[in-house]
Amino acid sequence: MDVSLVLQYVVIALAALVSAWVVAKKQFPNATRKARVALALPMLREGRPAWLRSLGRKIAPPAAQSGAGACGGCSSCGPSTPASRKP
Q: For the segment 40-76, what is each residue's pLDDT rounded down to a tens digit?
């Protein structure tokens, strides 16, 4: 195989992985959060090299906010009671 063909396959594979990750984050946010935690926890244990712990902190999801809505989503929920319409 030519080097250019291998490079083309690598670029296409990376694009497909990034695309799949973006779709997974949009469609399955809880599953991707759990996957990030599962990947990061072993890296953050005591006795690991500093570079590995740093990578684990980058992979770990951000801390959940305590003031988030019940769904834990975008915090753009509307009012609890609908606005009344006057004719």
A: 999 999 999 999 999 999 999 988 766 555 565 665 6
Q: What pTM did the predictor assign?
A: 0.58
Residue type, 30: N
Q: How far apart are CA 68 and CA 77, in angstroms?
A: 10
Cα separation, 60 vs 83, whole angstroms: 40
Cα–Cα distance between 38 and 40 in angstroms, integer?
A: 6
Beta strands in 1-87 (DSSP E): none
One-character DSSP codes across 2-33? -HHHHHHHHHHHHHHHHHHHHHHHHH-HHHHH
**Token representation of residue 49:** 């090299």
Q: How far is CA 1 from CA 4, 8, 59, in A?
A: 8, 11, 35
